[in-house]
Design goal:
The chain is of the alpha+beta class. The protein has seven helices and five strands, in the order E-E-E-H-E-E-H-H-H-H-H-H. It has a three-stranded antiparallel beta sheet, with no helix packed on it.
């Protein structure tokens, strides 16, 4: 991703991912939620740490010794972030967390919030229900909702 792929529009940040595995550009937005982490502010703080003398436009750059460097973050380093996050927060089997963990989590959370399968497919850029079902974790919220639907019938 490049710096120019991120558009800060004040109350929302719009991110375009131009180069995907399916060669179909994707766009998503970032907003501040109701929790204590204000994601827009975190992004802006990260962006301000960027050195002015960087000759490339890569969005993600290395951060060492409490400051940004000019070195871009490589794909191998980037792909280890979910594992490092899992280790940091003490999850079991952190080696099982990959870049797809973000896609799986977002699909599961979206479904748990009440979205239907069509919305989840659009969000993830999937065409078939079976692919979506492979990303959705077996969640307790889904099981409770299914039980309610069975009981009501």
């Amino acid at each position: 991703m490049q710096v120019d792929d991120v558009d800060d529009r004040g109350s929302v940040i719009v991110v375009e991912i131009p180069d995907t595995k399916t060669h179909k550009p994707r766009t998503f937005s970032i907003i501040n939620g109701s929790n204590t982490v204000h994601t827009i502010d975190v992004f802006r703080k990260y962006r301000m740490l960027r050195l002015e003398n960087i000759s490339h436009k890569r969005l993600f750059i290395s951060y060492r010794n409490k400051k940004c460097t000019v070195q871009p973050v490589g794909v191998n380093t980037f792909s280890k972030f979910p594992q490092k996050i899992a280790q940091f927060i003490g999850l079991q089997n952190p080696e099982e967390y990959t870049g797809h963990s973000f896609r799986r989590s977002s699909a599961t959370l979206l479904l748990d919030s009440g979205a239907d399968i069509t919305v989840v497919k659009t969000h993830g850029g999937w065409r078939s229900n079976s692919v979506v079902e492979g990303y959705i974790e077996d969640s307790l919220n889904n099981k409770i909702e299914i039980s309610r639907k069975i009981i009501i019938q």
